[in-house]
Amino acid sequence: MSSSHVLVLNCGSSSLKFAIIDINSGAEALSGLAERLAEQAPLIKYKYNGAKHNIDLSAGDAHQVAIEKLVELVKQLKLDTHLIAVGHRVVHGGEHFTKSVLINDNVIDAIKQTSALAPLHNPANLLGIEAAKKAFSHLLQVAVFDTAFHQTMDKQAFLYAIPHALYTEHGVRRYGFHGTSHYYVSTQAHKILALPENNSRIISAHLGNGCSVTAIKNGQSVDTSMGLTPLEGLVMGTRSGDVDPGLFSFLVNQLNYSAQNVDELLNKQSGLLGISELSNDCRTIEEAAAEGHAQATLALDIFCYRLAKQIAAFIVPLGGLDALIFTGGIGENSDVIRAKVVSMLEFMGLSIDNDKNLAARFGNQGIITSQNTPCAIVIPTNEEWVIASDAATIAQEQ
Ligand code: AMP
Fold first, then answer.
1. Are 11 and 34 in contact (CB under 8 A)?
2. Ligand 1 centroid from CA 394, angstroms
3. Care to name a GO molecular-function term for this sequence (predicted)?
4. What Å distances lie between residue 105 and 114, 127, 315, 338, CA to CA?
C-alpha cells in the first residue's frame, strides 16, 4: 500500500465520524463512528475489511479519548504509515473561508470567531481538530467547510431584508450548508451528463436528516435554501424549515416560550416528526403512510410540496434547467418522494420513468426521468471523498 491515505474526521457535539480513504482509488480502508461521547455508554463502531466491530469506551469518555482509541486502532491495523493528512469537516466558515485551507493558529482563531454563528457545530469541530493535532502531530491538518461552496452567492441572494448593520457588524446573512455535498454531486453531474462547465443549470437537492436545495449555474452556487443557520428552507427530519418569523413572538408572548424553547421546538420537534407525531425517519413515515396513517401522509405531502416549490423557485436564478439532482439518504433511496416531487414539476419538462426511478436506489445512480434534457438524476453523495481529496491536494502543495 502506498502513502496515499487521508483520515477524514467529522466531529459532532456527541459523535465523531471517521474514515480513512485511499485518494488514488477512493476506497475506504476504515470507516466508523464514535457515538454517545461524554454520555453514559460511549462506543466506537467501525468497519474494516468488510467486517463490523465495536470498541466500548468508559462512561463520560469524550472526543479526546475517542481519537486516542482511534489512533491505537489505526496503528494496530498498520494504516498509520499510509496517512498523508487529516481532513476535518467544519460546519461554518463564515465569510473567512471560500475554500478548504491548511489548519494553522490563524485558521483556528477564525473558526473560533465563527462559533457565534454555529454554537453547536463549530466548537465540536474544534474539539476534533485539537484532539487530532495532538494525536497526529506529524500530519498536516486541513479544514473543509460546509459553507465554502456557497460563498459565490450574490448579495441579492444572501442578504436578508433587515437593517444592513446586522450584516456589516455581526455577519447576519444567508450562508448555506451541505456545500461539500452540493459541490460533489454537481461535479459528478457535469461528468455523467457531459454538461459544459461554462454553460450549465443544475439544481441539487440534498435530502437527508437535514435537507437543502442549491441552484448551481456554470458550476457555482448562486442560491441555496439554508440560511444563517441550517434551519432555513425545506421541511427536514426534525427542523421546520421556513416559518413566519412572527411565530417567534407568538410563542414567546402568548405561550411563554423562552428563546431556547423556540429554538428547541423549531430544530428538534418540528419537520417530519412534528407533523407526523410519529418519527423523523423518512422510512418509518413512508411505511406508516402506506398503511393509512393520516399524519404521516400529511408529513410527506408537506415535505414534497415545499421541496417542489423551492426547486421551481430556483429556475429564477438559473433561467432554466439542465438537471435536477437527488442525493442524501432520502434523495438516494426514496422513489416515493422523488416521484411525487417530479410529478409536481412536469411543467418544467420533467416526467418520471417508474422503472428507472426504482432502479436508482440503494447506492445506484441514474437518470430517473423519461427524457435526458432536462433530467432528474440520482447521484449518491460522497462528502468524505471531497474532504480527503482537498486535504491530499493541500498537503501535497506544502
Ligand atoms: P442521511 O442524513 O443522509 O443519512 O439520511 C437519513 C434519512 O434518509 C432518514 O430520514 C432515512 O429514513 C432516509 N432513508 C434512508 N433510506 C431510505 C429509504 N430506503 N427510503 C426512504 N428514506 C430513506
1. no
2. 33
3. ATP binding
4. 14, 14, 42, 45
Q: Does the annotation mark 353 as catalytic? A: no
Confidence of residue 62 (pLDDT cuts 50, 70, 90): confident
- Please identify, by atom number, the ligand 1 atom nearest to the C-alpha of residue 280: 10
Given 61, 80, 146, 390, which residue is catalytic? 146
**Average pLDDT rounded to a whole number, residues 288-310:** 98
Distance 331 CA to ligand 1 centre (A): 8
Residues of the chain with CATH 3.30.420.40: 5-145, 195-383
**Minimum CA distance residue for ligand 1 atom 18:** 333
Closest among 323, 63, 297, 340 to 193, alpha carbons compared: 323
Q: Report how far ligand 1's centroid is from the alpha carbon of 305 (Å).
A: 18
What's the predicted TM-score (pTM) here?
A: 0.96
The confidence score (pLDDT) of residue 296 equals: 98
CATH of domain 195-383: 3.30.420.40
